[in-house]
Amino acid sequence: MPAIEVKPGIYWIGVNDRTTDLFEGLWPITREGVSYNAYVIDGEKKALIDLARDIKTGDLLNQIAQIVDPAALDYVILNHMEPDHTGVLTTLHRIAPNAQILGTKKALEMVAGYYHITEGVREVKDGEVLELGSNHKLQFVSMPFVHWPETMSTYEVNHRVLFSCDAFGGYGALQGAIFDDQYPNLDFYEQEALRYYVNIVALYPKPVLKAIDRLAGVPVDIVAPSHGLIWRGQPERIISLYKKWAEYADAPGDPAVTLLYGTMYGLTELMVEAVAEGVARTGLPLEIFDVRHTHSSYILPYLYTRRGVLVGAPTYEGGLFPPMVDMLHMAEHKRIFNRQTAYFGSYGWSGGARRDFNTLCETLRWNPTEVWEFKGAPTPELLREGVAFGTRFAESLL
Ligand code: FEO
Description:
alpha/beta; Rossmann fold; seven-stranded mixed sheet; five-stranded mixed sheet; 12 helices; about 35% helix
């Protein structure tokens, strides 16, 4: 996509990445893609805000060159050091050795660590102002742990544009337009922003809320993150969504059910259908995931926002079915604590999943209302019990 003017003299020069399969080497984006949004401010002094992954070096340099000769840049501002935003730095520094690299103290330590660049760098302080001329003035705002400890935002004071980097970002390559107000339906980007939030940022809810508090009273016409949509029509919408999501961290979750299951020969799966019928009878929202085939990236947003977690999985070698163990360990890693839960699953000759499940519940601080192992294939009578089991669980959330 060609460079796009965001405000007079301020340009989006980002790139889409539809090649990478796993963001951070971990989170699937094969179908959705991601954008690395970068910005040029064309004042008397020329500033570049954030970069892109190294696999997009050529594309980003071409984007910059539409507005300014990359060699003539005065400043390269690094809001965040993660290589999805700085991978181009080594090449750019060779092309523009006189461009001063600006970042927080910690960011510059990381620049030295990641890219071995120690010359031509300058620390900026929280609240520091940088005049670029031609009616452009930047202010740097420290935002540690949104997403890494070195992170800051850059605010263009005269045009009220917030360059927030990871904060307020989301997965999803841009589909021919960069602004929220150019899309008739934002469902895809909002869902992908939530998935991104839970995958990437959710470990740090207090820094997110602190950053949002600092924005109170700051006039923001445009939220310009470094992933996903640029929020021009409703900048307050993405800020309020991030606030809502950060507040889930200390909340019990919505009265709704996530049903996680795994099955070896379909016996536990038979019971899944019965339990789901029982939940559905209460009218509570229910989402079902087969953990064998669904990456945790897609499941975590549901676990993060919903109070109830039903776990259906068989005993495997005397313990809980390993794909389920992996899923619950990821929930632990993301600190999705204090959920209401119940377990059901089939066993062949002896149980054992129950013990693992109870141990995991202690670690996760999940409250198990029922733990139910059944032998072999469920009989019609057991399936009727499964329906009642599902209903009891759902009613316990009301
Ligand atoms: Fe988009 Fe934390 O990097």
